[in-house]
Amino acid sequence: MIYYSAHKWGGLNVLFQLHGSPLPRALPYAILCALMALFFKLQDFGLRDNFSGLFDHPYGHQVFGIVVGFILVFRTNLSYQRFWEGRSMIQQMSTKWGDAISQMVAFDHATSEEKEQVYRDGPAFRERMVHYVSLLHALGLQSLRSDNNLYNLVPAVDRNGNVLHRMVQAENVMEYATEVTSMDVATRSHAPARRVGSKYAFTLRMEQDDIAHEHPIGVLGGVSKKEILDLAPHEHERPFMVMSWIMESLVQRAKIGGLNVPPPVLSRTYQVLSDGMLGLMQCKKIQDTPFPFPYTQLATLVLITFMLSAPIIIVDVVEKTSLAVILSFFTALGYAALNEVARELERPFAYDPNDLPLAHIQHDFNLRIATLLKSDQDGLREEVVGSASLHQFLSRERQRRASAAHGGL
Question: Fewer CB atoms inside 10 A, N or C side of the chain?
């Protein structure tokens, strides 16, 4: 996705950016129509004399141009709806799964200290759940961009390029075929989007696998070798598998005394996990369902017909050669560019500059949920509360403040 400022030079600065612009792809059609207009003018075919009665008034062609414009506008509007729905459903997925992991961590912190072993295993359980949710989110985004290579999942890093979180069981982290440093991951994760040569003029064709490798998706704690072996055979069900791991872990933890909240409250966690999966499936709906072929075929046919006929009408109506060429050029450029905008928006999960930045969305999600592990890592709860319960600590604090207030009086 291209982030830009429309406040420079009154918004005119956007006219000079070619990266991600539909204009280079519309330019060949515009040049062709301009050359057609120039050719007809220079050859002086006498169009009005040869086609007597056809050019008394360009009303018929004007109506045709309006119909073509409506078809392209409707297509662009439908394409934008697909694009925006995709972005909205990704946001729902991220929000719901973020809510789910925050609930898991909060509920597990309520585990009674009387169950010593269960309480002691709490940090490891919470760490594993954060890792699973990060992996679930990463696999969901990876499936949206049609990337099945699990080696494009790398350890998540912060904005400085440092590994965001290392699993306690470091021996389980996947061994990469080539050494990948934290800064390499950061550089690749924040690299600008590359263009796909088949959709852009004057660009080098790149395979989708190469582009996916340049934009890896981060996972908190990396991916273990066991997870790789379990997930590899199931290209299309990987998010569902990780969801089942999370569900099983929650059930087992609650069974032994963790997640010490009433069952109706705990059921809320299962609900928001399901809501997040619904968001992912809505995104998959957009990815798996192309824009309807009949509409695309019709729009392409009437667009080409209009652009081939427009120079003939313009040449007959406009007497000055230069003006006829300019009008033919910009007429074709406007219609063709609008069609290219629609083509660009109807697939929001690919690798083009205007597609959704899935790797960056995962990066922001990792930064958000990694904060849930801070209390376990830094020992803030033990430092503040000590061996007493939080309720006892707050009671003593209120008494101390009340005594200090009376002493001041």
Answer: C
